[in-house]
Amino acid sequence: MRALRRTRVAVFLAVRSLVRGNAGVSLMSIAMMTAVFISVMFLPSLIAGATDALNLQLVGTLTGDLSVTASSGVTISGATSYLGQIRATEGVVAATGIRRVGSQVSHGSDSVTGGVDAVDPASYAQVFTTPWHMIEGRWLSAGDKHSIVLGIGVAGAGQTKLRTYASSLKTVHVGDTVEVTLLDGQRHTFVVQGIYENSFPLSDLGAFTTVADADSLISTTNISDEIRKAFDALDRLTSALGTAADQSSSLAAGANGVASAAGSLASSARTVASSASSVDSAAGTLATNAGSIATSTAALTTAAQQLAGALARAKGDLAAPAVASAKQSATSAAAVAQSAASLASTCPASAPTYCAAVAGHASIARAAAAAAASSTAATRTLAAALSQASASATTLAAQLASLSKGTAAMADAATQLANGTTSLASGTKNLAVASDQVHESTLAVARSATDLSDALTTSVQNAEGPSRATREDTLAKLDSAATVPGKDSVTRIVISVAAGADASTVTSRLQPLRDDIQFQSPAQLAAAIQDQLDTFDLINSIMRILSLLVAAITVLIITFVDLTNRRRQIGIERAIGIRSAAIVGSYVLKSMVTALIGTILGWLIFRFVLMPLVLRHPFQFPTGPVALASVPGVTRANVVILLVVAAVAALLPAIRTVRMRILDAIWGN
Amino acid sequence: MTERQAFDRPERSASGSGATVPAVHAEHVSKIYRLGSVEVPALYDLSLAVAPGEMVCVLGKSGSGKSTLLRQLGLIDRPTSGRIYLEGREVTDLSESRRAGLRLDRLGYVFQEYALIQALTAQENVYLPAMMQGRLRRECRDRSAQLLTQVGLGDRATHRPKELSGGEQQRVAIARALVNGPVIVFADEPTANLDSISGRSVMQTLTDLNGGLGVTVVFVSHDPDDRRWATRLVTLSDGRLLSDEQVQR
Fold this sequence. Notes:
The complex is a heterodimer.
Chain A: H1 2-20, H2 23-63, E1 66-70, H3 79-87, E2 92-107, E3 110-119, H4 121-127, E4 134-137, E5 147-151, H5 152-155, E6 177-182, E7 187-196, E8 207-210, H6 211-217, H7 223-346, H8 352-463, H9 468-481, E9 492-497, H10 503-510, E10 517-520, H11 522-525, H12 527-565, H13 567-575, H14 580-616, E11 619-621, E12 624-626, H15 632-658, H16 662-667
Parallel strand pairs in A: 3-8, 5-7
Antiparallel strand pairs in A: 1-9, 1-10, 2-3, 2-6, 2-9, 4-7, 5-8, 6-7, 11-12
Helix pairs in contact in A: 1-14, 2-12, 2-14, 2-15, 7-8, 7-9, 12-13, 12-15, 14-15
Chain B: H1 3-8, E1 24-35, E2 38-50, E3 55-60, H2 66-73, E4 81-86, E5 89-90, H3 96-105, E6 107-110, H4 122-133, H5 137-150, H6 166-178, E7 184-188, H7 196-213, E8 216-221, E9 232-237, E10 240-246
Parallel strand pairs in B: 3-8, 3-9, 6-7, 7-8
Antiparallel strand pairs in B: 1-2, 1-4, 4-5, 9-10
């Protein structure tokens, strides 16, 4: 209740003071607040205007209202049917597909690296304003062949005042030919059909050809395949390096074994060399002995031959006559015996003595015949023995001859053996030396092989490249991202949303159509200008704080001066019982009302004078002409802030004044 | 004991039990002004009790302490020492807020220099204290109109101070002093800046209030002729009470 009374009095005093008080002070306060309000409004509006201009340029020339890209890359396949679905969606006014087809435009020795896009000229013109900003020639039409439209930032068009002129093709005009490096690496010549200027550097660096041209010129190459091949080759190389490392490691182990063996060999060789020397000496002796044996054997052979000859002769000379003689003796004896036997058989029994003599004689004749027969047999045996002996002697001689040859060969062999053992001795010595060298060499080889193995292992590790998962992930992305868009593919789709329609609502309607795409608003795509906007915001904040500070100080000074002039009145008011709170409230209220009137006036001047004026004569920014934009949120915030500032600025001197002694206030002590 | 209790629970007057409680009472009041390092004594151990219904004229030469005494009694200033009682309640050490409340509800004060708020009309000047007291707007207007008529300015209600003469302004100030029905009205040389006719008119107004409404009036004057309006004459000299006498008006 008490507060209400005080407020009522405060309002009463404030209103009366404003209406009937010092008009000059009130007007000055209002004028100052008007100026301050315009001041705090101007820069945010200018920045908002610049931002609006940027956004308009972005939406009109680069991003559209909504941009659709593949969620896992930049290629959207099946674009024709998808575009049809998009266009049929509520809230969508137009949609166009853009396919990135080239990376560089060249003319003579100049070249500009940037995107060359293939578009459908008609739908592109429905979404973007670029076709309406031609400064030379005309926009593309569907039937154009090998035609290209360039941004002024690419063509240059002889406009030396362009900031991007130095990096442009400089003097390209309509009708000139330029060479375009397509994404498949091919270069094709295009005729410049038109040159546009959006007065927006980001979009003035574009180049456009028709989808039909792109379809006829570009082959599709899957870069990911090439990369996959490279990865495979890398794998093979890595594997080979690994094998080589293993082999090298084995080689090192083998070399170490060889070195060890060579060491042993050298040791053995030295032993063998020593033995070979002994063998050599023995072989020499053997050779000598073998020679003697050969000589002896030859002599024996000769003797055997002579013996065989002798026996043969003996056989011929002795055995045959003996046999013949024996045969004859036997024959004679047999004949005698037979005669005797015949006599004996004919002897009369009367002549016993005779018969006895004849019988005795016959017996003797038979004995003689028997003896002769035995002699003949013996002679034959002898002859046979001689013959056998002769044959044996011949055989012996032949054997001895053969032996002689053998011994001769043996002697030769022994000689050769001796020679061989000499060589062996020498060879084994050499072998020992060589083995030592091999030992050293193989040790060196083993070390080298170990080093090589280590190096190869390191190389393998280094050559392994990204992990398999990363590689597959990358390749999966490249499968779409690195693919030159095919004939029914686009890099992105840009959508114009109906006036009044909400882009997020349209997005929610489009979302169910496909799950392999993503939507981006202009703000999300405008990261390139975010720094610029941030700088604007910073400047805006600083200027706003300074302006509000000026406003606060201004209100403070005005209120202070006003209160100083009204000190006596305040003293009187206090003397008649008006509460300090009501007095302070009246000044705070008066200041706030003054501020409110000032801000309303400021807003009216700003809205109906300054904004139309700047609209007719816009500021020229690098991004194009910029007008002041209405920023309701900022306006409301500025009004509130100024009111608070005015209240605080009035409060301080008012409190100070009501704390004075009444006498001092009234009589100025 | 709180300030409110101190005010709401009347104490016995220092003048003695059984006696009428003075409307205002100064007891051994001294006031010394300090101008830098210099101390200027204005009142010396002054005691004065004003009974209800009295019309007291405080006389004295310039610098005698008349206005200083009035400011102490009217709760516009605080004494250096001594006590001030209002209707028997000590108010010397009350907070500024409570003193402002007493000035609003119980006292009326008429300044030498009219002391009207220039942005308000005569009527608004009059009813401003009533508004502060929480009266309804219509009540305020009626009351102020009645008072203005009473002081002879019924037809000047909507005029602003600069449109009024000195005497008229002073009468508006008197009407304002009366708007909340004070028990005592203090007037600090109300005729000092007025011509004799206006001065007489003002004094007649105060006398009529005192006689007709029984409002206690304490006024300061340096003009000996003003004693004729008073029922009691208090004369000061160099901050001391020189004389105190009842007179016939």
